[in-house]
Fold each of these.
Amino acid sequence: MLLKGDAMPKEETVLIGQSVQRIDAVGKVTGVAVYPADIDRDDQLWAKIVYSQRAHAEVVSLNLERALALEGVITVLTSADVPVNEYGLVISDQPVLCGPESTIVGGTKVRCYMDHVAVVVAKTAEIATQAAQLVEVDYQNLPATFNPEEAMLASAPQLHADTPNNILCHYRIRFGDVDAAFEQADVIVEGEYSTTYQEHAYLQPEAGLGYIDEEGRITIVVAGQWTHEDREQIAHALNLPEDQIRVIYPAIGGAFGGREDMSVQIILALAVQKTRQPVKIIWDREESIRGHHKRHPITVWAKWGATRAGKVIAVEARLVGDAGAYNYTSNKVMGNANLMATGPYEIPNVKIDTFGVYTNNIPTGAFRGFGAPQAAFAAEGQMNKLAAALGLDPLEIRLRNTIQEGSILSVGTPLPKGVSMPQVFEAAGSAGGWERGQHGWERAIRLSSDNPYLRRGVGLAGGFKNIGFSFGYPERSWAAIELYGEGEIETVIVRQGAADVGQGVHTLMVQMAADAVGVPFEKVRLLTADTAKTENAGSASASRLTFMAGNAIRGAAQLALQKWQDEERPAKAEFLYRPPKTTPYDPLTGRSEPNFAYGYVAQVVEVEVDIETGQIWVRRVISVNDVGRAVNPQQVEGQVEGAVAQALGYALMENLVSIKGVIQNPHLSTYLIPTALDMPMEVQSVILEYPDPIGPWGARGMAEMPMIPLLPAIAAAVHDATGVWLNHQPFTPDKVMRALREQGIGVL
């Protein structure tokens, strides 16, 4: 369902707004599409990683004799082979290979079970696997810490010498007078909420091929989210100029943030550098689950105060996130959670402290929503509890507090123009059975069940999230357009380095280029995801690519068309798009201009709760998303449905168990994700189009937004059905049964 906003642009377009078939659809459906694991070379070698067997230890020595003696083994690489033994997307705090000969201080230690201590290179994958088991590592165990609250104590083991008390980051927001506001509040609710890990569970495990290309560059064919950032980290570790490294992305089988950080890229490049031969590696599913980062477990304590009129006047919160052994993007994720801790509401008095903490657990990092789902769970839970305490409808209390055009955020600055949160909430309410009455919005229909052990309920939640990089990062995106032909444009070549990780952005880029130039879709050819053919486009993250790549393509098209009109043949133009600048948090008050654009979402869910078993079934989801302009409505609907599936798993069943840093269920047989049979009977996508003032054709990013409110919406629906609040994700049947029994509900 697509509803046009009042401010929709009036001009007609050729392709924007059409559900054009994806350019990779046939290849992916038929199996013709080529993924990294599908690519081979006749003379390739195979690599296998030797992983740490300790949560925290000094690597005293490695004995390679037995491995090297195995027939077919070419070499075994250790820390001695890494020129600059460090890497990291934001902070270079992780060794490429941990070992006694590391060139970097701290590189002699392993800090979690996913650390790499050696890489075997052999003639076959089987020999490499066998030889990896023959590498002998002598460890000296060190004290370990696995609880972030305990890790912050002065007595806790210290993971990194330059990070006292293991506090990777601490963000503060101080806005208004919180203590005075709580004294004036008529109702105060407190709550503690906790979330656990989530595994990305993308279809394609990590794999790649490295070789020397025709120009002598070390070339890495891999799946990632940002080719130029991969190139930069590889070049740094190998101590080579970036122009001697080439990164290519073929088809990518999902990412969701899980490929933002390095997996096999540097290892492959190092093996190619040492052997001068092609080298391939493929992780199995267990390696993938043990080896890449997860969504952050975050604990939130929150205290919210409101007046009898339903106006929230004070929020105090404390968030603690488990970063694991290395930063990855934890400082950025926790910064985002810090901003989202007050939800999509304008609150005049706010005090928040947010911590990201090193532990000896698996690292955590980017995952669809980037800290917002965890923060929304607490914020929306608090709003629902205030509504219950005040006897107000959940939608009505939200509309009395929602951010709107001109609202001031808790960081003391106004939101960028184009705020549509009130319209999003109202559209969700209208679609979900609410009506505007004499005393405001009220739900017109109450659900019931003939089965005495089956309770039905409805829940509502909303959220918002940044589009593009935040807090002062110099955001930019490059594109080039080439126009070929004589009397008319016959071919358009678009160069744009954005990664298509399954979300369909390459199709959108062709649509946008065709529309901007004014040619049929079939005349556009896209060159992308190869550092030898494009400049930096930025990451496939932060819901940014439609927005950023669209503006870059549109700018390049305008310049190329001007050259065409000036009879320059072929007409070639480049454009570097830079959005409005953002600013970082003030370290004491949190004041900042954090983002240049946002996306807005609200969801209504209907659930059934079996009070005999604790099973929750989500029967219907209504997801309302303001996308600014739906460039390809079908793909918007696909993103909504995919996000609902992922959020459903997060809420109800995905439970990665880590004990003392060891993942206990590293297989998809024991780590459960939703199947088609677990999906709601109905997922209704309501697409609103209130144009973003600076978005291309008014478009906003939207792929992360439907992930954000489903967890708290389900919690609200369960409360509506049973009267029980669920504050600790995931809502597995055992947790639900325990909560029901504590309230005297169900059969003993």
Note: Confidence is low (pLDDT under 50) at residues 3-12.
Amino acid sequence: MQILKSDGKGIEAAVEELKKGNVVAIPTETVYGLAANALDGEAVKKIFLAKGRPQDNPLIIHISQTEDLKKYAIPNEIAYKLAEKFWPGPLTMILPKLDCIPTEVSAGLDTVAVRMPNHPVARELIKKSGVPLAAPSANISGKPSPTSAEHVIDDFSENPYVSAVIDGGKCQCGVESTVLSLCGEEPCLLRPGFITADMLKEVIPNLKIAEAVLKELPNNEKALSPGLKHKHYAPSARTVCIKGLCENAAEYVKNDGKDKKTVICFAGEEEKFPRCKIIPYGRSNDFEELAENLFDALRKADKIENEKIYVRIPEINDELVNGILLAVYNRLLRAASFTVIDCDKAVNGLVLGITGQSGAGKGTVCKVLENKGFIHIDTDKIWHEIIDFSAPALEEIFGKITDENGKVDRKILGEKAFSSEENLKMLNSVAHKAIMAKVSEIMDENRSRGLFNFAIDGAALFEAGAKDICDFIITVTADRKSRLERVKIRDGIDDLRAEMRFAGQKSEDFYTENADFTILNDDLTALPQKIQHILAKISKK
């Protein structure tokens, strides 16, 4: 990749690359874009290949003067009024397209998204190249957008499809352009940006805001604009948005049980999150500052070895929904796959670990707790659901354990894993990490829906580190004969395999000594009363 200066020579070199049908990363006032000749379908394909971008995600074309709008689209009166007020600038308009626009640009739609950037380098490059430039954000698809040439280099320095980047310094806005559809019965805001809904309503009072701005786009619905996909702008580590009072957010993060945590917080909150990597991204009430620094903060977090990233997110209300905060909120929702946790409520939730030897009746206890409003998370069931994804790692340890379809043969795995203590440790090294990652994901998703009480069921909760995320641990015990019969019936195994499984587990004393409470599962009719007795004790603590 050539790194070009933003002077005349750099622009001329970039023009030559574009004329060859190559892709050049360019600065704009919003974010850096991967640019190619928008009238050349083959050149545009290189953008998709470089980014790993889905083919059903349309691109925006960039022009250098308003007069060019009618060359590529069919503008209406509103489009010209908006162009007069906001162009050049970070506003994209979706209009019916002309036939000169390739399907690669429009993703098969009969519309095209057009904007005129307000960056002198971008404008000069478009003008000298003599063609509109298709230019989505210059990042790997789904990852945080780039607001500096360094970000582009991080993503594409070794990418064969990107020929050059023009270093135009840091982007001014920090979030992508506002996208407005003018093709429906009423103008509709599809993606918020620096041109806010309030500003647009000065020209179009009947502006609608699409539900997809703050909600997930249904799987079967076509994306009419860039940035509408479910997960977008996201670091590699699981990312969640946290809202509420700072002290409650700090308490939630502290108790979430992750060893490697990064918190993207508001300026002034840095000392509130001990033992975490901290990245402030602006004052909580300065929404333009948050927008400008957002993607840089997400990229910094992505360079840290994380198990989880938490992003402090401002509260949004009817008054703020029409301003720049909507753009910040929209990007963060997608970075976190729409997982937003209200820490003011979450810190009052209750997480119970239900453990004990196989066949003791942990699932039965959890059924009673489900009737009391708890979300039952069965770690055995999780392992059965995700075990096939762990097959490569398991076969490195145990050899061939899969069938002709690549599915794990659980009986073979069980025989090998439970044949020695060392083998069991190696199985657990793979299983525990995968299971706890899924447990965390399930809890986050439910908390995002306003559900905060959980019962995590598993025989190896202590070994897996689940105690770190549980408020209390309850051990369930039962006599050996009852446990043996339950395991044989439940798992379809014989006495020998059941005994092998028992031999690989901790003793009953281990469970009872390490738990906060113990329930003897010897009478099903008395079980609800025993559980209620424990919950009453917990409520007094």
Note: The mean pLDDT is 91.
